[in-house]
Structures are given as C-alpha cells and as structure tokens.
C-alpha cells in the first residue's frame, strides 16, 4: 500500500526507499494477437532512479493518479514473501473528471528478514492494454 501512496504523491525517493538494492521492476501484458506476454518495461533499482530523475523532462498528464491496491494472497517462505495484489488506477483531470486508467495485478517478492520489509521485485501484470500518451510514470 505504501508504494502506491508514494507513486500517487510523486514521492520517488520514498518509493525507492521501499526497494531492496537488487530490486527489479517489470511491466508485462498478455497480447492475444501475439499469444504471448509483452514486456513493456524492465528496470533495476538504478534504472528506476534514472527514470524518476528524468520524469520532469517528459510531457506528462497534468492531473493526478490514484492507485487502489488490494492484497489477494501472501505466501511466506522463510525470509521472503510472494504477495499478489489486484489494483485499479483512476486518473483525475484538472477539471475534476475522473476515469479508469488501468487495472491489473502486482506480483511482488518481498524480503522480510531485515529490519523492515523491502520489495525485491515487482511485476506489474496489466489487463489494460491502452494507456494513452503521457503515462511514463511507474504503474
């Protein structure tokens, strides 16, 4: 949930602070036309930091995203846990009109052995396949 709050608020440092040093981020989508997964983005922690640092140079949507995640499954295994969450992302224009932006699942691997949990990996598995322009932000 905290990762969603950080992304909603544009708190990029806060998001990275939730990630392990070997963090991997991936956005995938199944293409029925190709009959296989498409990888839309894949970054390590350093790549995510570079992406966040470069967001100001992109043309972006002027409104606000709001992510709602719901944990569906936690499978703990020693020092890690696999967490599956469903998500819905709404986008609100500056004039106050909201619309559905994307839906899908977060498939996370979380390190649980340290002082606090850290994301080791996040696979964003989108059901939505048309995100329109100006959506360079992590999902």
Can you walk through the features of this model?
The chain has 139 residues and is an alpha+beta fold. Helix content is 17%, strand content 52%. It is built from three helices and six strands; from the N terminus they run ααββαββββ. It has a six-stranded mixed β-sheet. β3 (64-77) and β4 (80-92) form a beta hairpin. The longest helix is centred in the middle third of the chain and has 10 residues, at 45-54. It is globular. The model has no long low-confidence stretch (mean pLDDT 93).
Radius of gyration, whole Å: 15 Å
Strand order of the largest sheet: 2-1-6-5-4-3
Helix content: 10-25%
Which of globular, elongated, flat, extended, rod-shaped describes the shape?
globular
Report the biggest beta sheet as strand number plus sense, adding barrel if it closes: 6 strands, mixed
What is the mean pLDDT?
93
Give the uncertain stretches in residue-range form.
none
Q: What is the H-and-E element order? A: HHEEHEEEE
First and last CA, distance: 13 Å
Question: Notable features of this structure?
Answer:
globular, 3 helices, alpha+beta, 139 residues, single chain, 6-stranded mixed sheet
